TrEMBL record, chain A:
Transmembrane segments: none
InterPro entries in alphabetical order: Bact_solute-bd_prot1, SBP
Primary subcellular site in the record, as a coarse category: other
Protein known as: Carbohydrate ABC transporter substrate-binding protein, CUT1 family
Pfam families given in the database record: SBP_bac_8 (PF13416)
Signal peptide boundaries: 1-23
Entry keyword annotation includes Transport: yes
Family: Belongs to the bacterial solute-binding protein 1 family.
Source organism of this protein record: Streptosporangium canum
Subcellular location: Cell envelope
Keywords: Signal, Transport
From TrEMBL, chain B:
Superkingdom in the source lineage: Bacteria
Signal peptide residue numbers: none
Topological category with respect to the lipid bilayer: Multi-pass membrane protein
Protein name per Swiss-Prot or TrEMBL: Carbohydrate ABC transporter membrane protein 1, CUT1 family
Native source species: Streptosporangium canum
Amino acid sequence: MRHPGAHTAALAAVAAGALLTSAACGSGFDDSAGRSTGQSGGPAALRVLIGSSGDAETAAVRSAAGTWAKASGNTATITPAQDLTQQLGQAFAGSNPPDVFYVDASRFADYASVGALEPYGDRISGSGDFYPSLRTAFSRDGVFYCAPKDFSTLALIVDDDLWKKAGLTGADVPTTWERLTSVAKKIKAAGITPLVVGDTHERIGAFMVQAGGWITSDDGRRAIADSAENVTALRYVRGLLKDGLARFPKQLDAGWGGEAFGRGRAAMTVEGNWIRGAMKADHPDVAYTVHALPAGPRGEGTLSFTTCWGIAAKSRHKEQAISFVEAMTRADQQMAFARAFGVMPSRRSAKAVFTREFPDDTPFVNGADYAHGPVNAPRMDSVLADFDDGLQQLASIDPKTLLARLQKNTRDALGD
Amino acid sequence: MAGTAIRTGRRSRRRTSASRENVAGWLFVAPVVAILGLFLLLPILMALWVSLTDWNGQGSPFRTGVPFVGLDNYTGLFVRDDLSRRNFMISIRNTFSYVVIVVPAQTVLALGLALAVHRRTLRGRGFFRTAFYFPSVTSSVAISVLFLFIFSDSGAVTELLAIFGVEGPQWFSDSRGLLHLLLSALGLADVDAPPPVLTGGGAFGLSWWEWLSGPSVAMCTIIVLAVWTTSGTFMLMFLAALQDIPVALEEASMLDGASRRQRLWYVTLPMLKPTLFLVLTLGLIATWQVFDQVYVMSQGGPAKTTLTPAYLSYRTAFRDFDYGSGAAISFVLFLLIVLLAALQRWVMRDRDAVGDLRRPRPRRS
């Protein structure tokens, strides 16, 4: 019979040994986290992590990167991410982030607030040429952090066949909320679902902008969610839903507005220019036109979605990375991307070329003038997810209750 | 003198051989202990440290300058009136109703299947055993995707219900709780206008009405999936235990004149008790940790009714960059599982004195 105490002691000793060995490995962690790292000269091997929309985008970025690499004498490895947010999170925690990566505007504040991003925005030549709303989306405390790679806006998409079936003409395309309601009533009378709109703040938020409201103040410091303007907007959308003039995609057995629209289940939808690719791939026979969103009580409004080329504060090849981004965001390069995978250039100087080549997309690109960017504040992801859960039940919840909850959660998140 | 020397020598030889055995033993298990320590114990301790800090995911959590916040992340889950507590409590509520349904259902189903395929009279036993076990060996992600199709609005289940004239719910977008619907159907409460008695008060930021929602319609699909996929594994455990019961025991009880039901209740089931304990414990642990089905099928929606602590922990850490709070959630979940397993062990402890009385008494003819 052996002594039980000896077991425990030996086990503890071995465990402690294991701990010590691994703690020794642990000292390899970079202790200079948060601080920026020194620049290394000479040719660099850039690592670029992109959240690609598909093979077309990956191929286009690879080809552009190849051209830059050949001209500058560096190399650039493009890796399309499976789950960009998670992969970046792990890379930052491991102190070994890629040099250049996509940063979605809705996540920008999360990264910028913890010092993960290099604020290089104004070192790009012609940085004033980017649309002001996109510069705002990637600025924090007045510093322009990263160059927007492209952008999208929401517009009203109209199904030509269903439009005719409801006895409507091109002149009937609604330009105001009142006309949207009256046109929707006519379409409903013809037995067609008038409008399908996504049940998230990324679609319904456009109505809030048209009413003059938004979730956070322009500097992203204060919560302004429970304003009278927002109540007006949600009451209007709620009215559409209650009268059967608008439906959420799920109610039409679709994953998103574009799917319901493409299947001919609704005459109108509110979506961005990405709908072009989806329609071409899945519903090539549906004829449709793009129009500006109807104006609300405070005029025209839409939402913009954008991504920037983030450069890691910890990158050791910042100069080369900036030169890479410079090449990627030149107007002619952005036009090449636009042709390859249907995005809109983020530079105002490219607008004329773009509208000449893609005249049907003019309403999308015009939206840049009155578009509102995503919520630019950190720690808002779960707050907005909670708001979306509320919006799903908009038909049965009082908008004031919903906005009061959003206001409280936003204040908690912002420390307002 | 010489005798003593020999005796001590022998004793010390015995001692050295024993300690040598000891050293050899430790050498043999050293690789496993090292691997477990390095990849299991150490990460757990590291996560414990992270749960005590306000680490934002930049660089190592072990450098100086990472703010230490003590138990703040833990108290935040229970005390502070904000969104993170609300989410955590909702996830506990959801998972509780999930566990309460899944664990008994999968145990009973597994036992039933095992008894069915154990019968010697059943033809094609091998086929049925394989068929019932099949869902368990298939990847849970693949099955989740399959269920997405089956329960979609134009899927098999909805179509099947339509044949019987029932208009099925929109499974994945229906956030109404089953208990709410039941109360509604009985006329005790109205889903759209809940009684103020229940909405007025509450605990941990949720009203009593919210606590009492039961699993949502969307959660039911995950419940069905879990029961279906896990019952095969547990059936196998029950089957192994059934085959271990000596035939003589069964024959003896037959000779004693016990009916089939009595044999099941007084002979088979008591013999299965250790396996039953195993199945319930494994079921309890696995169900509280449900993650992959939620990640694939619903991401916590609709209206957070499929949010579970494991998924919430992941989301809090990797989407909100609140690693401390995310780690704290997983440790609370760990404690909860340990407590429940201990409680279950206590409930199922051996009570032989009671068992004696319930043993069937042979009738004398």
